[in-house]
Amino acid sequence: MIQAMINSIQKEYLMEDQSQKFGYNVQRFIDETNPFGNNSVEYMGHNLSFTEQDYDEFLMDVYSYSTSILSELQQRFPNRSLFTSMKILNPQEWPKNSQDLLFFGDDELENLLEQEWAGFKLVVSNNLSSKDIDIILPLLIQDYNDTFPNIIKLIQLVYCIPFSSVECECGFSRQNQIKTKSRNSLTTDTLDRLMCISLEELESSKFNYNRAYTIWSNQRDILALRNNS
């Protein structure tokens, strides 16, 4: 995680109370050549010369480079608690003890949801607060599903909750009118289509019969080709 990387860089390269550490390749070069203990060394066909001042400057370069990396990380990820909280999504981070697992991640999950909720409130208040709720909710589902996945899922669940049983009762009533004793061989798919047509109650004058025929004819031709092949 981000904070762990920052702590590692601080510990290995910036702590003054312990011996200086370098990266793998630099440390290998120092171990093989001992450049700062010799005025001149040969390495991979190159003659290199060093002074005591070079070593001091080298340490300053390491310190400056490490400090720059830390600064960039802190600017790039200002809210590191959010990334730290994401560790709960990795099962390898979960405690092995079942009792500890019971309450593991509750605080981190709350932190993640707080971040999403804060951003959600900001977007709605700045862009959608003047609109009615029946306009806001479809827009949120359409445009912000990837940005606020948990909240959008809750909105979709709310959208599915019927405020009364009228629609259900109407559906059962219409089903009984369509699937009578003399039509009890209707398949589920056919019944579903007939109920959709009946419940939508589109006026016959507005129905596009030509388009419906074209769709039906194309499907018939496709079925004919499949059967012949």
From TrEMBL:
Any Pfam family hit: Dimer_Tnp_hAT
Recorded superkingdom: Eukaryota
GO molecular function, one term: protein dimerization activity
InterPro entries xref list: HATC_C_dom
Domain HAT C-terminal dimerisation, residue spans: 142-197
Protein name (record): HAT C-terminal dimerisation domain-containing protein
